[in-house]
């Protein structure tokens, strides 16, 4: 290496070293032997890192790696060894080569890549001694000069590195023992990049970088690059192909090559129709299958068994508790086993101690399970899983609802300390619970119906109505076929609640009535109460107050016969709602107060919050706004304690309404923005739309009409996308009111026409009255007294039918002001 650094360094092995500069090389004393360290070698032998491939994405990872190296060099510190780890085929080598290329000018003495075959199909991992002999040969040592022992070779290698600026890329490392003798030691001018499927925890002073699958956008960009052509606009096939490849570069490369020869749609169909996505992509299938096989066979027998047990799990993720149930091992041991598999990139780490398979690897793990595990053992493991999770979800849901002060008899694990801790567990486990419940139903497991119903109850609380409906429909069907009337009735009641929530009143009534008849048939009083509450609520939504009161009174009497304070409290709350809807504020306040006492005796926090909410609503009607704010605040605190988002939103809405009544627009905006954020977190678009309407109302009151229109329009679009005609009608009616304020009468008339049509289709008389009231105000503003009088009369008549006396009086006063006949 003429003109290159001569490496005048001190040997670190065999005691004190002596050194003499010989001009074209160094003379060292190594274990009593004088050795010549060559200084001149052909440059090509010392620059063996292949050119990097075209790298798509990975900007953040590459920036982080480069920053680590350059920060250390600028500070004069030894450059940390960097370990890039991740699953097979994720692109570790491509990233490391790209980083090496970016740093080329900073390491002019040598840039060396060594393939260690740690996880190469058909190859044994290389021994460190053999690798050192190769590296020392590249450095100019003859075979006769090399020490026989591994420590001797390692020390000689480090002596040669000292004082030089060398970049070493150690690719595909099996474990720490394989790579430790190759590291530069105190040679501070050197950088070592390591790629491995293991995290190599045993290595010290290592900067570790975990490489995940590509983001969707980068996966699509890689397919575009490899195919050499852009897709047709609007097809969306590339995104589907990226998903089918699990966004794993090794699979994307095989699929991208095929895209150069065939249509996107045909390849999507070929991959969708296979039992495994790559089955019809031979090159990709061979590469990924081989990569998984090498990693699997690198595990010891216990780890292999654990991985196969994870494959038994219905998915999509799991934790140590579930693995312990599947395998009958202690939970701490299961936790250690899962962590070990994640460190070897066989499992993905997820949030809160949860793990999962990469989509492509799961199929291979299941194949190994089919070969090695008895079907009976798999079935028994799943039965234990169903029982464990069934007991836990039953306890957690009861705790969230304020029904449990101790675990149920079936649950013997750690108790959930608070409703919030129970809700946190349910939220983190929701995906697993749903899939496990479906698997239990498919297997007709003894606990299947109860598990599915409890999971559905949670999913509904967590704003996942479609998923809850799917479970309950399957329970109703399977229970009906098996003659299990109780679980069939429970499922029907649950379906009624979902339909009621969607304002599908006829459908809800049908479900509740069928459930009531089944409960009556089997003599289940608690079930009858639940069905009666549903029937009463549907009647209340139709403004059929007598029918609603009759249903709630029956439920109250059943509650008395069972001695359940909570059931009585719920029935009394419902009776209070009827009184409030009828405008009977004194009677409503009395009943809400009675319900609060019953709920307190029962220790039902959610019920207490509901009663306080009702008392606050009554206080608002009476104009007792300070008292209302205090009660809404107490209700909000209880809802927050148990994690009830619906309740929190209702209390916040009450606080926002009071603020609007007081012209405290900032406080109102703040309350409704909190509601919007509450639902944005969960992705509940229906409730987001409701919050937007409230925010639009605030903008109207502030005179910010452009902002009001924008919010009403956003709400209307959301409701239309969801098929919620009632919400859409309310938002359109709001747009009509704004148009009236702006004297845009044609636009207002069209909005009212659309809203009226929707209200009439739904049979919503309150909405029809609101439209008539808007039309009356529009006519009044235009100076058309006769039309205004007629519209006020229509509105007043409807308000009278539904019992809203305050609005009846308001319409009468307006007619009197106009001098209507």
From TrEMBL:
Residues 81-199 form the NB-ARC domain. The keyword Coiled coil applies. Keywords: Coiled coil, TPR repeat. Residues 705-765 form a coiled coil. Residues 1-23 are annotated as: Disordered. InterPro entries: NB-ARC, P-loop_NTPase, TPR-like_helical_dom_sf, TPR_rpt. GO terms for molecular function: ADP binding. The keyword NAD does not apply. It comes from the Bacteria. TPR repeats lie at residues 529-562, 609-642, 729-762. SUPFAM superfamilies: P-loop containing nucleoside triphosphate hydrolases (SSF52540), TPR-like (SSF48452). This is SARP family transcriptional regulator. It comes from Streptosporangium carneum.
């Amino acid at each position: 290496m003429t003109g290159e650094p001569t490496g005048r360094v001190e040997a670190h092995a065999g005691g004190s070293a002596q050194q003499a500069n010989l001009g074209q090389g160094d003379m060292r004393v190594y274990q009593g032997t004088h050795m010549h360290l060559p200084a001149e070698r052909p440059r090509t032998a010392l620059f063996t890192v292949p050119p990097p491939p075209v790298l798509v994405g990975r900007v953040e990872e590459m920036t982080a790696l480069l920053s680590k190296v350059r920060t250390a060099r600028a500070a004069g510190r030894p450059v940390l060894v960097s370990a890039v780890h991740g699953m097979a085929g994720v692109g570790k080598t491509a990233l490391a080569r790209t980083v090496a290329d970016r740093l080329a000018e900073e390491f002019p003495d040598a840039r060396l890549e060594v393939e260690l075959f740690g996880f190469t199909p058909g190859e044994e991992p290389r021994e460190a001694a053999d690798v050192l002999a190769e590296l020392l040969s590249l450095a100019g040592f003859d075979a006769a000069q090399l020490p026989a022992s591994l420590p001797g070779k390692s020390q000689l290698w480090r002596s040669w590195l000292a004082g030089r600026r060398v970049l070493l890329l150690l690719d595909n490392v099996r474990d720490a023992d394989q790579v430790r003798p190759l590291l530069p030691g105190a040679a501070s001018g050197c950088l070592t990049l390591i790629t491995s499927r293991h995290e190599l925890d045993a290595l010290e002073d290592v900067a570790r970088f975990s490489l995940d699958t590509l983001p969707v956008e980068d996966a699509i960009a890689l397919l575009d690059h490899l195919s050499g052509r852009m897709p047709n606009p609007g097809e969306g096939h590339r995104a589907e192909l990226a998903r089918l490849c699990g966004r794993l570069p090794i699979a994307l490369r095989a699929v991208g090559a095929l895209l150069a020869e065939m249509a996107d749609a045909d390849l999507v169909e070929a991959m969708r129709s296979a039992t495994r996505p790559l089955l019809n992509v031979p090159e990709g299938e061979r590469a990924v299958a081989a990569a998984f096989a090498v990693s699997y066979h690198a595990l010891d027998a216990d780890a292999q068994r654990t991985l196969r047990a994870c494959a038994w799990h219905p998915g999509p993720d799991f934790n140590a508790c579930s693995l312990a149930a599947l395998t009958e091992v202690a939970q701490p041991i299961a936790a250690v086993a899962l962590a070990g598999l994640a460190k070897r990139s066989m499992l993905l780490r997820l949030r809160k101690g949860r793990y999962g398979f990469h989509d492509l690897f799961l199929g291979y793990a299941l194949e190994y399970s089919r070969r090695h595990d008895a079907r009976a053992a798999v079935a028994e493991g799943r039965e234990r899983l169903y029982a464990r999770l069934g007991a836990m979800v039953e306890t957690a849901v009861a705790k969230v609802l304020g029904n449990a002060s101790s675990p149920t008899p079936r649950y013997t694990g750690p108790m959930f300390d608070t409703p919030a801790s129970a809700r946190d567990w349910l939220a983190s486990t929701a995906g697993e619970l749903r899939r496990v419940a479906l698997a239990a139903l498919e297997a007709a497991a003894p606990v299947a119906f109860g598990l599915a119903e409890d999971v559905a109850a949670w999913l509904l609380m967590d704003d996942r109505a479609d998923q809850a409906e799917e479970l309950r429909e399957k329970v109703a069907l399977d229970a009906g076929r098996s003659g299990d009337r109780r679980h069939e009735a429970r499922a029907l009641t649950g379906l009624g609640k979902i339909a009621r929530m969607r304002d599908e009143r006829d459908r809800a009534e049908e479900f509740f009535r069928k459930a009531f008849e089944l409960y009556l048939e089997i003599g289940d009083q608690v079930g009858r109460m639940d069905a009666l509450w549903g029937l009463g609520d549907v009647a209340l939504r139709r403004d059929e107050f007598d029918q609603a009161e009759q249903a709630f009174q029956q439920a109250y009497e059943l509650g008395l016969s069972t001695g359940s304070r909570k059931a009585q409290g719920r029935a009394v709350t419902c009776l209070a709602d009827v009184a409030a809807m009828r405008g009977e504020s004194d009677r409503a306040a009395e009943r809400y107060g009675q319900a609060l006492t019953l709920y307190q005796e029962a220790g039902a926090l959610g019920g207490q919050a509901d009663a306080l909410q009702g008392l606050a609503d009554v206080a608002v009607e009476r104009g007792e706004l300070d008292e209302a704010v205090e009660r809404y605040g107490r209700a909000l605190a209880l809802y927050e304690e148990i994690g009830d988002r619906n309740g929190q939103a209702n209390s916040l809405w009450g606080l926002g309404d009071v603020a609007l009544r007081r012209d405290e627009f900032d406080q109102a905006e703040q309350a409704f923005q909190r509601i919007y954020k509450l639902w944005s977190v969960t992705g509940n678009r229906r409730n987001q739309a409701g919050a937007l309407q409230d925010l639009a109302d605030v903008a109207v009151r502030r005179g910010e009409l452009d902002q009001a229109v924008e919010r009403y329009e956003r709400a209307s679009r959301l409701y239309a996308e969801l098929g919620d005609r009632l919400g859409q009608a309310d938002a359109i009616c709001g747009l009509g009111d704004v148009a009236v304020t702006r004297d845009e009468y044609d636009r207002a008339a069209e909005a009212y026409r659309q809203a009226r049509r929707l209200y009439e289709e739904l049979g919503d008389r309150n909405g029809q009255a609101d439209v008539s009231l808007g039309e009356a105000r529009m006519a009044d503003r235009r100076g058309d007294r006769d039309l205004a009088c007629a519209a006020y009369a229509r509105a007043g008549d409807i308000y009278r039918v539904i019992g809203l006396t305050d609005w009846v009086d308001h319409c009468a006063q307006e007619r009197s002001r106009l001098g209507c006949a």
